[in-house]
Amino acid sequence: MSATRYLEIAERLSAELAECAHGTRVASEAEIARRFGVGRAAARAAVQELERRFVVRRTQGSGTFVNRRIDYVISRSVPPSWSATIAAAGATPRALVKSVRTIPLPADLADRFERPAGSPVHEVVREFYIDDLLASWVHEWIPVAEVPHLDLALHAVDSVDQVLRDAAKDPNGLRLAMPTLLAAHARCVSARRA
Length: 194
Known about the structure:
single chain; 2 domains; Arc Repressor Mutant, subunit A; two-stranded antiparallel sheet; 8 helices; Chorismate lyase
C-alpha cells in the first residue's frame, strides 16, 4: 500500500458522503478496510482524515456519522450573525452564555483594548451548538465602561452582537463591536468528547 492510499480512500469517501444526509451512519473501519482491500490502519487513517476535514464526526460508543459543514463568512457587507448563518444553512443554532463576570482586564489583553491592565471588563464565556452538538466556545472581554449592565442585557437578548450594537447606538456596531471582537479569544472545537 502506498503511503497516500488512505488519502485516496478519504477523497473517495468524502465525495460519496457529500451526497448523504447529515447524521447518516458511516461504514465501520472494518467495512472500509474490506471494501478497499486495505488494512485496518489505512481505513482508520482515512476516517481520521475525514474527521480532520469535518466531513464526519465520531461519537464514542455510537459510531461515525456524516457531519454538516457550514461556512461562516465574515465580511464588511455581511452582518456578523452566527445564528442567522447556521439557520440559513438549515441547521438549528443555539448559543449558551455560560458565565458573565466582572474582572480586572488581564495584562496580556491591555494593549488590544488600549486600556490599562486592571480596568474593569466583563468576561463572557459562551458555547455555540449546531443541532445540539458543541461547535465552539469563546471567551470575550468587554469593557464595563462601554456596556455597564451587560449581564442584565444578556438575560433579555441572547446576541452579544445585538447588545453591543444597542450600547453603541450605532446601526453598524463597528465603533464598539470591532475592537471587542478583535480582542476576543476564541477556540473552536469540532465536538466535545465525553
